[in-house]
Input
Amino acid sequence: MIETKDLVVKFGSKTVLDGVNFRAAAGEIVTLMGGSGCGKSTLLRALMKLINATSGQIFIDGERVDDLSETKMNEVRKKMGMVFQEGALFDSMNVRENVAFPLRRHTRMKEKEIREIVRERLEAVGLKGVEENRPDQLSGGMRRRVAIARALALSPRALLYDEPTAGLDPLLTATVSDLIMRMRDRYGTTSIVVTHDIDAASRISDRIAMIHEGRILTEGKLDELERCGHPHIGAFLNAMRPGGAIGGN
Amino acid sequence: MGKIAFHPIVTAVEYVGKLAGMLATTLTYFARLSVDFRMTIFHMSNLGVNSIPITLLVVGFTGMILSVQVTEQAVRFGTTQFIGGGIAFVMVRELAPVLTAVVMAGRVGSSIASELGSMKVTEQIDALRSLAVNPIQYLVAPRMLALMIMIPAVTVIAGLTGIMAAYMVAHQVYGVNWEVFYSYIPRLVEQRDVSAAMLKSGLFAITIALIGCVEGMHTEGGASGVGKATTNAVVVSIVSIFALNYALTVLLF
Ligand SMILES: Nc1ncnc2c1ncn2[C@@H]1O[C@H](COP(=O)(O)OP(=O)(O)O)[C@@H](O)[C@H]1O
Ligand SMILES: [Mg+2]
Output
């Protein structure tokens, strides 16, 4: 469903991604892990073509997209959804207008149908009765969930989540993790999830991909990663563990 | 060393490139008539109508001060018949378009830059693109169109207000009556002066919208970046308005 070949992204003279070969099959949940600033967000943004790749190729649904024009890419983007780190909800709109926005822009649905879909998407992320609220009236966890509902509005085939659980308490982290799995079960959505939460990652994902120094260092199940014996990965996983330097309490 | 010396030039060229690119893209949306009508109306009222009072105050007071200076001399030299025509002439050609544009740059250019800037730093612009919506079509085109309609319209009202304010002073303080004040206006202010003023203020509108949008959409660095973008938008627009005004005055008149 999503594939990159030797993807390179540079900002000026700084090489952030240096030959990433990455694949996510249809319906798969893949977690991206790696230290801060290693280029996880950059990879997601490159997949959406929010930034241009310096070289290499990106395929979505078998179609090569890295050389598409903005107009053509918009057709591809309608098949994808992205959940930004802080939600990136439109703060001039209330929750209903946020979730309805892609439907209003890209479909000819009647107001009644739109309301129904908005209600259904919000219910899917476990929200009710917040339609009239403005984003700044919501908690961080609610904003994240509204962002997921908005990304789901057009029933995308793939969803990219940028640290959907960062800064959430353990209960909300579990809620969002469950949500990502339910989206896959309910809509068959391919998911790429950036997270630092190793327990969530091992629970929800079919595969974990570790990024280091601009490349995918290794990928596989958590136990495969643990067994691979690479010193950097061992150190990283240990630090993420409960009791470790980065990990939860 | 050479790199440092050329840096400001490179930056300036890049900046002009950004403006030109955004203008070109916006114009293609105008040409294809794919500008959101409802958003345009919203911005006309939000950005335009709400700026009318402050613009009228600024241009009105300028008309009054001009009248004080001019009328006193005119009464002294017995040339009161030229007061109205003279004031209307500079009001139409220069003061109404320029002062309106400067007030708009401060009020509207800054608000565009800060609104789009805060959308940029909170990834809302990226969110728009990820939802397959072109931010120039959705955010820039309606704002620019709204200003292209509203700034010339406000300029007309401001110009009339400035002239009437000048007459009020001439009449109240120096006893100049309307017939005398009006007598030379039609002879000094021609149709083409009015058209040129409209063209000027339309171009000022494009300048203000474009600079506000470029500053906003290229904002980086969180809340302080938004502050910088807002200040830049005002400073760059005001300087551009005066520079453009000089060029246009040489070309048009
Ligand atoms: N638009 C940009 N311009 C310049 N540098 C950038 C830009 N976006 C990201 N970077 C740099 O790229 C690196 C990777 O960033 P990012 O992908 O956000 O990391 P993370 O893995 O934490 O999500 C960082 O060093 C960051 O400073
Ligand atoms: Mg990141």
In short: DSSP finds ten helices and no strands in chain B. The interface with chain A takes residues 118-119, 122-124, 126-127, 129-134 of chain B (CB under 8 Å). The radius of gyration of chain B is 21 Å.
